[in-house]
From TrEMBL:
<dbReference type="InterPro" id="IPR007145">
    <property type="entry name" value="MAP65_Ase1_PRC1"/>
</dbReference>
<feature type="region of interest" description="Disordered">
    <location>
        <begin position="512"/>
        <end position="559"/>
    </location>
</feature>
<dbReference type="GO" id="GO:0005819">
    <property type="term" value="C:spindle"/>
</dbReference>
<dbReference type="GO" id="GO:0008017">
    <property type="term" value="F:microtubule binding"/>
</dbReference>
<protein>
    <recommendedName>
        <fullName>65-kDa microtubule-associated protein 6</fullName>
    </recommendedName>
</protein>
<comment type="similarity">
    <text>Belongs to the MAP65/ASE1 family.</text>
</comment>
<dbReference type="Pfam" id="PF03999">
    <property type="entry name" value="MAP65_ASE1"/>
</dbReference>
<feature type="compositionally biased region" description="Polar residues">
    <location>
        <begin position="518"/>
        <end position="532"/>
    </location>
</feature>
<keyword id="KW-0175">Coiled coil</keyword>
<dbReference type="GO" id="GO:0005737">
    <property type="term" value="C:cytoplasm"/>
</dbReference>
<dbReference type="GO" id="GO:0000226">
    <property type="term" value="P:microtubule cytoskeleton organization"/>
</dbReference>
<dbReference type="GO" id="GO:0005874">
    <property type="term" value="C:microtubule"/>
</dbReference>
<feature type="coiled-coil region">
    <location>
        <begin position="58"/>
        <end position="85"/>
    </location>
</feature>
<feature type="coiled-coil region">
    <location>
        <begin position="166"/>
        <end position="193"/>
    </location>
</feature>
<keyword id="KW-0493">Microtubule</keyword>
Length: 610
């Protein structure tokens, strides 16, 4: 409007006078014209000053137009830049945002006001996304560095990932997070493996008595004294170092176990040899347990330490020196043990290690006492083994001897005239006698079974079965012969009694009276003393039986009495066992002659064995 007024003042006066002065500029121009008129300015000067004023106003308006154009251009550029940035952000973040459209009807400022909040939201999302990417990528790089053992490069500050800012999509973020999870799992697995290896190293060092801290620090300093999982090194080199350390420790453990077991084996032998007390062994109880244990079972602290092994070696050396001074006593003690085993099994001990020979050899120094001891221990082992093979036969021998004892008791019981009296314990003896009669009837079958068993034992081993130095078969066969002879003597005695009864009856018929009591008693005495081995009733001496300790052992009372009589019996054939036994029968004439010999106080004719 001012520009129009000034343009009006630039015209001629007729036109200028017709310009409206109702506007503020018009009123000012009118006031200015009045002032100039009062001053007396010429019209030419007024026209010139109005022209200058018009020119100055034109410059002001021009500046305003230029400024407005510049602002419009700036707004358009800003709008275009924001639209471009908006597109870049949408492409970078990958967000699905409503498409921005330019509305020509809206002013530039309205369009900017519409796009600016959307752009700010995307910028904030981008910043947040960058932080997420930076965090994930930092963790990835850190774990990779821990695995590759190059984590020092991350100590100076965060890693710059600006080169990857062009792709901040959720898909790429998901890929990075998946990669991070895999690395975290690998880290966890490695960390667990490191802990397992370190625990194993700790156990091995504890058993071997080694410095655990120094051992693991030699692999990596972070393996001891670490306060958190992040400070524990999990690189390949650390795992390889731990593996090599474990292999070395296991090899060392294997060597020490072998060495200590050898030492403990010697220690056990010396303990048993020296008969060490429990108090003396107590100090080495943990070490002694190594002997029967595997490598995995040996877990006691410092049980395989060098100090423990050295201490055990010193104990073995001490006992070895002590053993040398007590060897003679130990050898004689082992000999007594051998004699006890042989005595219980009724075997003869090896006379090459008799006590007097042992004493002479040790005193002369010609033989090492350890060799003698080893020889006797070998004999003890063989004696025990043979005793086990003889066990079945020896049990049968014991039952046979028990039956012989019962037979002897039964014979004594039958000779007791008061056995049927109503005295105290008579019923018990009656029951025992009944059982004894049944048992005595089994003695022949017992002997036959024993002979068969003994023959089988001898055939299997090609050696004679000796009982206290005598061959058991010879003893049994002689006992068998004596039982047959005893039965024959009993039969003859019964025949003689019958013959005596007939003679008495004949005398009564001839003489008409009984013999005087004095003659009868004399006859009975002669009859009872007829047999040298008789016991007054025509019975033989009781069969072999076991005799209590300290009592005298009569000839042929037990199998032990046959010692030395049948040592060469094994070379003979089994003629007595196979051939039948034929005894001569006693005729009536023999009986008469026997009675005559009794009257004449002559002994019986001997029994003939064909």
């Amino acid at each position: 409007m001012g520009e129009m007024v000034l343009a009006g003042y630039g015209m001629d006066k007729a036109v200028r006078s017709s310009v409206s002065f109702e506007t503020p500029c018009g009123r000012l121009l009118r006031k200015l014209e009045q002032i100039w008129t009062e001053i007396g300015e010429r019209e030419e000067d007024k026209d010139r000053m109005f022209l200058e004023l018009e020119t100055e106003c034109m410059r002001v308006y021009r500046r305003k137009v230029d400024s407005a154009n510049a602002e419009r251009s700036q707004l358009r550029q800003s709008l275009m830049a924001k639209e471009a940035e908006l597109k870049v952000l949408v492409a970078s973040i990958g967000e699905i945002t409503p498409k921005f459209k330019v509305d020509e009807k809206q002013s530039l400022k309205e369009q900017l006001a519409k796009v600016t909040p959307l752009l700010e939201d995307l910028r904030s999302k981008k910043e947040e996304r960058i932080k997420q990417f930076s965090l994930v990528q930092s963790q990835i790089e850190k774990i990779k560095a821990q695995i590759s053992d190059h984590n020092n490069q991350h100590d100076n500050g965060p890693v710059n990932h600006s080169k990857d800012n062009h792709d901040l999509s959720t898909r790429r973020l998901s890929d990075l997070q998946a990669e991070l999870r895999n690395l975290q799992k690998e880290k966890s697995d490695r960390l667990q493996k490191v802990f397992i290896y370190v625990d194993e190293v700790h156990c091995l060092c504890s058993v071997l008595g080694m410095d655990f801290a120094k051992t693991v620090k030699d692999v990596h300093p972070s393996l001891h004294g670490a306060n958190s999982e992040n400070s524990t090194n999990i690189s390949d080199s650390t795992l390889e170092g731990l593996t090599e350390t474990i292999l070395k420790l296991k090899a060392e453990k294997r060597t020490r176990v072998s060495k200590l077991q050898e030492i403990v084996g010697k220690l056990h032998k010396l303990w048993n040899l020296m008969e060490s007390t429990e108090q003396e062994r107590r100090h080495f109880t943990r070490v002694a347990a190594v002997l029967g244990s595997t490598e995995e079972e040996i877990t006691s602290s410092s049980v395989l330490s060098l100090e423990t092994i050295q201490e055990t070696e010193e104990e073995v050396e001490r006992l070895t020196k002590q053993k040398a001074s007590r060897m003679k006593e130990l050898v004689l003690k082992k000999r007594l043990e051998l004699e006890d085993i042989c005595s219980n099994a009724h075997m003869e001990p090896d006379m090459s290690t008799a006590p007097e020979k042992i004493t002479a050899l040790i005193d002369s120094g010609l033989v090492d006492p350890c060799e003698l001891l080893s020889s006797i221990e070998t004999q003890i082992a063989k004696a025990r083994e043979e005793s086990l093979t003889r066990k079945d036969i020896m049990e049968k021998v014991d039952r046979w001897l028990s039956a012989c004892d019962e037979e002897t008791w039964l014979e004594e019981y039958n000779q007791d005239s008061s056995r049927y009296s109503a005295g105290r314990g008579a019923h018990i003896n009656l029951k025992r006698a009944e059982k004894a009669r049944i048992l005595v009837q089994k003695i022949p079958s017992m002997i036959d079974n024993l002979i068969a068993k003994t023959f089988a034992w001898e055939d299997e081993r090609s050696v004679p079965f000796l009982y206290d130095g005598a061959r058991l078969v010879a003893i049994l066969e002689e006992q068998k012969l004596r039982r047959v002879q005893k039965e024959e003597d009993k039969r003859r005695h019964r025949d003689q009694k019958k013959l005596q009864s007939l003679l008495l009856k004949e005398k009564e018929l001839i003489f008409g009276s009984k013999p005087s009591p004095k003659k009868t008693s004399s006859f009975n005495r002669r009859t009872s003393s007829h047999h040298p081995n008789g016991n007054g009733a025509g019975f033989m001496t009781p069969v072999p039986r076991r005799v209590s300790a300290g009592s005298a052992t009569p000839e042929l009372l037990t199998p032990r009495s046959y010692s030395g009589r049948y040592n060469n019996y094994f070379k003979e054939n089994r003629r007595l066992a196979a051939a039948p036994l034929n005894f001569s029968t006693v005729s009536k004439e023999d009986s008469m002659s026997s009675f005559a010999s009794i009257s004449g106080s002559e002994p019986d004719s001997p029994l003939v064995l064909h």
